[in-house]
Structures are given as structure tokens and as C-alpha cells.
């Protein structure tokens, strides 16, 4: 079974530039999450999708972050414009609708904002 | 919303000793408590989990206990080995598949 795929693995940009991250969840997983993990901290939930609908985006800084999950499969997380404090690893995770609750994470996309 | 606190932030033990990591949660509706292990530069991976209708669960050298009344749960690793060195995260899930993580515990196992 293929795991959660994310790209790019690494991205370096200057502040005020934009960046986009892509995630392809495990086939059949209806629920998809984006987490932000700042160095030395636990993953912080940014947004949760159920199929192509947003379940929770209360922690998403909507003035600069946006995410979509068209067709209920792949998802894209965008940051525009980026700030220095956005430097982090962006983790995508997926899970089935009626599973144990276990999250399957991708390798993450490491963003450095200079 | 749910808040998960985790202690200690760093833990150093001698190989063969036991390690205990403790977490507390705030939302009494939380009913699923997973533990994830994250090795340096790798993705978090589930190592054990417990549901609110169970007080204790064990899997070889790893065990988790849950006290619903006190709203805290703990991870116990016995006979620690160098390969147990990693960051461990506790988490709580309110049943809506919304998983909130603790800040993590960096475990060092000295050979």
C-alpha cells in the first residue's frame, strides 16, 4: 500500500514570496489534514478535510494561508505572502472515515523563509 | 477546544531502564489517545493507542495507561534500547477525527 505522498520535500523562499505544497493521501482515505510542525514543537493542526469539504480550519491563518482539496483526493496548501515565522515542516496526514483514528503521515515539506 | 500538555520535554535514561512520559488533556469528550514516535527527520508514526473505555494497554515493551477521571494518560517504555531514542508525542482525539498533539518529549537512551 502506497503511503501519503508530499512534495516538494524542501523549499527555501524569501519573505513575502509565495509557496505551494501538494499532498496525495492514501487511496480511499476520506479525511485529510495539514499540520504545521515548528522545530522542537508538536504538530499543530491547520486544516481538516472530509472528502472535499472543510471540517475544521479554525487554526489556519486565513489572511495568508489557503488550502483546497478538489475532487476529494489530492490537496494543496498555499502560503502567500510568507513570513519568517512560517518556517516549519508542513505535514500532510490522512485517515479513513471509520477507522481507529490513526493518522498516516507523509514525509513532510520543510519550508525555510529567509 | 482540546489542549494537551506533555511532560517532560526531555528525558534521558540509561539503556535497560524504564521511561515514563505523562500527558494531560482538557476536553472530557476526548475518547482516543494515540502515541506517535518521530525519529530525526522522519514522519511521526503510531506506536500505541488507547480508547477511553480501556484503562491500560500493553504491546511488548510499551504500555499506555489512562485515567479518565484525572484526564491524564502515560506512556511507559521498559527495558529501553538505543533505538528507542526519538521524540514521542501524545495526542487526544475528540471523536471527530480531530487529533491534537502535545509538545513532545525528546527521549535519549544512553548505551
Describe the protein in words.
The complex is a heterodimer of chains A (114) and B (111). Chain A has 114 residues and is an all-beta fold. Chain A has no helices and eleven strands. Chain A has strands spanning 5-7, 10-13, 19-24, 31-37, 44-50, 53-56, 65-68, 75-79, 88-95, 104-105, 109-113. Chain B is mainly β and 111 residues long. Chain B has no helices and eleven strands. Chain B has strands at 4-7, 10-14, 19-25, 32-38, 45-51, 56-59, 62-67, 72-77, 86-93, 99-101, 105-110. In chain B, the strands form two sheets. In chain B, strands 2, 4, 5, 9, 10 and 11 form a six-stranded mixed β-sheet that branches. The relative contact order of chain B is 0.34. The model of chain B has no long low-confidence stretch (mean pLDDT 93). Classes of the chains: A mainly beta (114), B mainly beta (111). Chains A and B meet through strand 4 and strand 5 of A and strand 4, strand 5 and strand 10 of B.
Helix-strand makeup class of chain A:
mainly beta
Overall average pLDDT of chain B: 93
Helix-strand pattern of chain A: EEEEEEEEEEE
User: What is the overall number of helices of chain A?
Assistant: 0
Q: In what range is the share of β-strand residues of chain B?
A: over 45%
Q: Share of helix among residues of chain B?
A: under 10%
Rounded to an integer, what's the Rg of chain A over CA atoms?
13 Å
| Content of β-strand of chain A | over 45%
Amino acid at each position: 500500500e502506497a503511503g501519503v505522498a508530499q512534495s516538494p520535500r524542501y523549499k527555501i523562499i524569501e519573505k513575502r514570496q509565495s509557496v505551494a505544497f501538494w499532498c496525495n493521501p492514501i487511496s480511499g482515505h476520506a479525511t485529510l489534514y495539514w499540520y504545521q510542525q515548528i522545530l522542537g514543537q508538536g504538530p499543530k493542526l491547520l486544516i481538516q478535510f472530509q472528502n472535499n469539504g472543510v471540517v475544521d480550519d479554525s487554526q489556519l491563518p486565513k489572511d495568508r494561508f489557503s488550502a483546497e482539496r478538489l475532487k476529494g483526493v489530492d490537496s494543496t496548501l498555499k502560503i502567500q505572502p510568507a513570513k519568517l515565522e512560517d518556517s516549519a515542516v508542513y505535514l500532510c496526514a490522512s485517515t479513513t472515515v471509520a477507522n481507529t483514528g490513526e493518522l498516516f503521515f507523509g514525509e513532510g515539506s520543510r519550508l525555510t523563509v529567509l | 477546544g482540546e489542549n494537551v500538555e506533555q511532560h517532560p520535554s526531555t528525558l534521558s535514561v540509561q539503556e535497560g531502564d524504564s521511561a515514563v512520559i505523562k500527558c494531560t488533556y482538557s476536553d472530557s469528550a476526548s475518547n482516543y489517545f494515540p502515541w506517535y514516535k518521530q525519529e530525526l527527520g522522519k514522519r511521526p508514526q503510531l506506536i500505541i493507542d488507547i480508547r477511553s473505555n480501556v484503562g491500560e494497554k500493553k504491546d511488548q515493551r510499551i504500555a499506555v495507561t489512562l485515567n479518565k477521571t484525572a484526564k491524564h494518560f502515560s506512556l511507559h517504555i521498559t527495558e529501553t534500547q538505543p533505538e528507542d531514542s526519538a521524540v514521542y508525542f501524545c495526542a487526544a482525539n475528540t471523536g471527530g477525527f480531530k487529533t491534537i498533539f502535545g509538545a513532545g518529549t525528546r527521549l535519549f537512551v544512553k548505551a
